[in-house]
Amino acid sequence: MILAACNSSEVSISEIQSIPNKVQDVINDDYTLQLINDGKKNAYIIFQSSGTVTAELEVIENILNIKLDSANEENNELKQYVYKLTWDKKHNTIEVLVNGQSTPFDNVTGL
After folding, report:
1. Structure pTM?
2. CA distances from 45 to 5, 26, 57 (A)
3. Closest C-alpha to 105, from 87, 76, 85, 90
4. Which end of the chain, N or C, is surrounded by fewer C-beta atoms within 10 Å?
């Protein structure tokens, strides 16, 4: 019999609709782009846009490239998009590209 521990190094990003209360409590509507780290293997990326947003993740060595593309901006009403990011500790750099442009986080918070 062989017993193996699940040590997944899976990296993923997915939009979530149900935001955990502890995350919701630290979201600041004044920021366009935020990163909230849960101190484990997950983080939450909050992005506000007046268009429809799609997210894509690209991994290059130790860098996580998060590509956020906003389209169909019809009015100035902002919508909040929340993404759950799961990564391995070997990935120590997160780069966010909004419509192809490198964009810094307005705020980085830990839980």
Report:
1. 0.85
2. 29, 12, 12
3. 85
4. N
